[in-house]
Amino acid sequence: MSHLQIKRNCVVCKEEFIAKSSKGIYCSIICFKRNWRKLQKENNVVIPKVKRIITKEDLLPKHYLSIKEAVVFFEISEVTLRRLIKENNLKYVCLKNRFLFLKSDLEGIT
Ligand SMILES: [Zn+2]
Questions:
Q1: What's the 36 CA to ligand 1 centre distance in angstroms?
Q2: How many domains does the chain divide into?
Q3: Rounded to an integer, what distance in angstroms lies between the CA atom of residue 28 and that of residue 13?
Q4: Is residue 70 in some structural domain?
């Protein structure tokens, strides 16, 4: 018996097999592939994105601001903004159900 023949239990199917090298942990290529796929899946686990806090600096280069961004940039309340929209006191663009404001228009109201 060669010293390279090592009795092991496959890490995937738990079957006993003869490992051809000290590194062999799978009984067959099938188990190797199965485990490799599993590892791939585990590595691909998406870490939930931490909600980024928008700062004024982020918004400086922007010409258009959403409600949420306008609240941060001009330090006004969302309620105020929505009221101004309702009262037609503020020009806005409605894009895919989102309100966008031109920064210069918002400057006039603050
Ligand atoms: Zn196996």
A1: 12
A2: 2
A3: 10
A4: yes
Residue range of the domain that includes 99: 56-109
* In the block, residue with structure tokens 């409605």: 94
Distance in angstroms between the alpha carbons of the first and the last residue of the chain:
87
Output the CA 20–ligand 1 centroid distance in Å. Answer: 14
| Residue 15 alpha carbon to ligand 1 centre in Å | 6
- Against a cut of 0.90, is the pTM above it? no
Residue 74 within any structural domain of the chain: yes
61/94 same-domain check = yes
Confidence of residue 48 (pLDDT cuts 50, 70, 90): confident
In a domain, 50, yes or no: no
